[in-house]
Structures are given as C-alpha cells and as structure tokens.
Amino acid sequence: MQTSTLEDYQNATLSGSMLQFASFKLNSEFFGINILQVQEIQLPKPVTAVPRAASHIKGLISLRGQIVTLVDLRRRLRMDESQPIENPYHIVVQTPSNMACLEVGEIGDVITVPIDEFRPPPESVHAVDRKFLEGVYSMPSGILTVLKISEVLEAI
Fold first, then answer.
1. Cα radius of gyration rounded to whole Å, the chain
2. Residue 149 has pLDDT above 90, yes or no
C-alpha cells in the first residue's frame, strides 16, 4: 500500500509551498481530496448493485466503458446517514493502485492552502476513523478535513 506524506504533497505542488484540494460536504462537514487524485466530478450515473458487497459499496458504474466501484463515502466514514443526500455527486478518484467513485453531497471549490498551515489530524478525532485522514486545515468558515484516499479505497 502506498501512503502519502507531507513531503509527497510538497513534491506534487507547483511551488512546493501550497497544497490544493477539491472540496465537498458530507452532512455538514467540509472535506478535501488532493486535487492530483481527482480525475473528474460527475452527476450520478446508473448503479448496478453487487450482491454481498461490503455495506459501503453502493455498486458499479460504467465510466466511458470502464467499470468503476461506487463507494458510499458517508457509510465508509461511518457518518450519520439519517438524512438522504438530496443532490449527490460522484467524485472519480485515482491512486496508483485503484480507481473508484465516491458519492458525496455538495461540491465546493478547489481550495489552495499554505503547506505550513496544514496539520496532521488531532488525536481526538471522533467523527471519522483517524486512518482515513491525511490532515486538517483551519479556514475562516470551519475545518477542512483532508481524506487519505489510499485508505478510503483500501480493500474495495
């Protein structure tokens, strides 16, 4: 399994001093994914269910002829699912070893943050398993929680 480090992020940015994340909301929480791991963002496509798949696997979708797993990100992160996502989006993400679609709620902007303000996730994280988190960034509107996509896609 390949994991990202802060040094990997530095090497992947243009100037080495800024990080960029595609942002989105799940429930009321603000998340980000390294922009270099995002292939595209789409409106939902028809889903084919997979019998006896893990509960966070919504099914399979066809992406220009390629079959891709659709992950219910709220379920994967063990978040509250009591309210449906009214207008979901699919974020197609890719790591060196895997590609998948993540079902998310509201899509935000690409967020550029100074690398020296990017922090590891605090020890007290409760809402999401710590292993799924790359780090956090404090913004005027709240906390941007950056996901570790390699872990989110692990074992799918």
1. 15
2. yes
Residues 6+ apart with CB under 8 A from 46: 61, 62
100 near 114, Cβ under 8 Å?
no
Nearest-angstrom CA–CA distance, 81 and 41: 22
- For the chain, list the domains and their CATH numbers: 6-149 (2.40.50.180)
Report how far apart, in Å, the C-alpha atoms of 141 and of each of 30, 36, 37, 49 are. Answer: 9, 24, 24, 37
**What's the chain look like in SS3?**
CCCCCHHHHHHHCCCCCEEEEEEEEECCEEEEEEHHHEEEEECCCCCECCCCCCCCEEEEEEECCEEEEEEEHHHHCCCCCCCCCCCCEEEEEEECCEEEEEEECCEEEEEEEEHHHCECCCCCCCCCCHHHEEEEEEECCEEEEEECHHHHCCCC
pLDDT in tens, 5-31: 444 544 544 456 899 999 999 998 999
